[in-house]
């Protein structure tokens, strides 16, 4: 079943829709900006990661060159080694110390000065090395790490070769992005030992291992995201202004379209109202004829009596009385003519012939006509219509008149009923259509039920008593029936009509 309704967009609803649209727009803006900030952090981290990895790879080359110089020289003082080491530290400031530690106890370390404990640790690490470079935090220099390599890189190693590297300078010239407030950088050894920390850990984080096989340091970047980052004031204001202008434009367009549709609907309803009013006059004529027959019976009876009297007077040759009788006959004939002329004018134009049509359309037309009255009375006017067409063969205007009469009677019965409800239900049952109209009003008085469909029967002081009689006549003309159902609350009318045969000609 479909439940037809007539939506009304009040200022409150429009305000709620606008607020919902604003919240949705802000949510989309926030998500998009958050993704942009995350993507920017990832991009900057990738650039910094590539730079730090390239610099770390240079350390491997330095160790290889220094190891070759140390093993190739027979100079106990390793002067060439020291010259090369000085050149490296001069051109690469992040390398703060280079030293060559002999593995024999009677030899002296060459290069940067080392504490005895560190020198002993380097020698032991080089002896235990399997050929890979060992990374350790530099105990003599905060924020530094040392690379230890045996030289030559074989079991016949004679030296332990080290580079001490400033982790902070490994990230020098990282870019202007990392100088912004809220950004953070950190570098740590593979085992998690921290070497360098800049800024605080933020909401967004990226963690990557350097691409150097010998120095897989862990680079961690972060960014703190504030409300002003998610919603930049100037850009957000411009976006909201553009959205507001677009919404106003759409609202103006929708309002114009609604006004145009409303004008068309009003014109259609006006035409429909006129058609129903005319149909009411046409259909009421048949029923009113029986109630007004005495108006014609009296002049016709008088004409008959006067004609008979005139014939007798004519045989008596009583011309004076015959003239008076004929005058009375003419008067009564004119009276009957006036009555007939009144009915003839009232019934013009003729009604539309019966044809197959969708009964749902007739109900929608009547609903549109009575909806303003229902709203004014605060009555819930509900229609339950099937999703598929309900075809009947009848006069569409007559069926609209039947529904109009029943629904208007229901609304008038609910004038003094709070929370009034009128429910109209249309359904198909076999080869028949059942239309039920039910209200929660005071119902029909028991003494009126027997003659409810008799002309001129009404419980309202201003009623004509023709609506239900006309409705019964029109329904029966279409091959159906209308009955008052037993109901404990309000009045319930059931109309049964035959379904139109498929393929029938209109």
Automatic annotation (TrEMBL):
Residues 291-501 form the Histidine kinase domain. SMART domains: HATPase_c, HisKA. It holds the Pfam family HisKA. Signal peptide: none annotated. Its EC number is 2.7.13.3. The keyword Transmembrane helix applies. It catalyses: ATP + protein L-histidine = ADP + protein N-phospho-L-histidine. It is an enzyme of class 2 (transferase). Keywords: ATP-binding, Kinase, Membrane, Nucleotide-binding, Phosphoprotein, Transferase, Transmembrane, Transmembrane helix, Two-component regulatory system. The chain crosses the membrane at residues 234-254. InterPro entries: HATPase_C_sf, HATPase_dom, His_kinase_dom, HisK_dim/P_dom, HisK_dim/P_sf, Sig_transdc_His_kin-like_C. One of its GO terms (molecular function) is phosphorelay sensor kinase activity. CDD domains: HisKA (cd00082). PANTHER family: PEROXIDE STRESS-ACTIVATED HISTIDINE KINASE MAK3, SENSOR HISTIDINE KINASE. This is histidine kinase.
